[in-house]
Amino acid sequence: MRDQIIHVLSIKGFAKEETLSVAAGLEVSDVELIAQNLIDEGLLERSRIGMKLTEKGKVAAAKILEDVRQTTDLAALENFYQAFTPINQEYKKSVSSWQIKTVGGSAEPNDHKDAEYDQQVLTEMFKDHDSLKHLVATQLASCPLLLAYARRLEIAYAHVSAGHHQFVTGALIDSYHTVWFEFHEALIRLSGRNRASEAAAGRAD
Question: What pTM was estimated for this model as a whole?
Fold first, then answer.
């Protein structure tokens, strides 16, 4: 699980133990123990806003990704990325609709007082959830590092389905949007791409 902690921090940039425990599916006490070992090895350091990788830790994170690439079916990963791209585009449109609502021709922040509107957006936002889950299971079976994101997406989806709408786009929790962004970043890196080139191509922002 130490590799998972290093990987999560490489994507997030920084995080506290509680956040890492949710992302890694571990007890906070277990994360604290792993983190302390990584600190002792010079891979992690504590900051005011949470733990982050040291330069040595960043090298370790890059090595973890390279090792994962060696055991991953890269052809299947590429097929997944190509199938994921249009789903991602549609998802981003729904996130925009969730955050910004057009009223009388004017765009304004969505105050979420219109339950019917919000439900329509959520229906559109999650229309590909089951398809994505199937794609992950069939195309990414060789990559446990990415399968972990599917677990987190499913947890966030369950929260949203239960009416906990902070898990739609909440920034400080493992919301669907938070996990989706991190999943996409991991996909970009594992496929040998980078976010700048993907953004230029209109596939990331």
Answer: 0.93
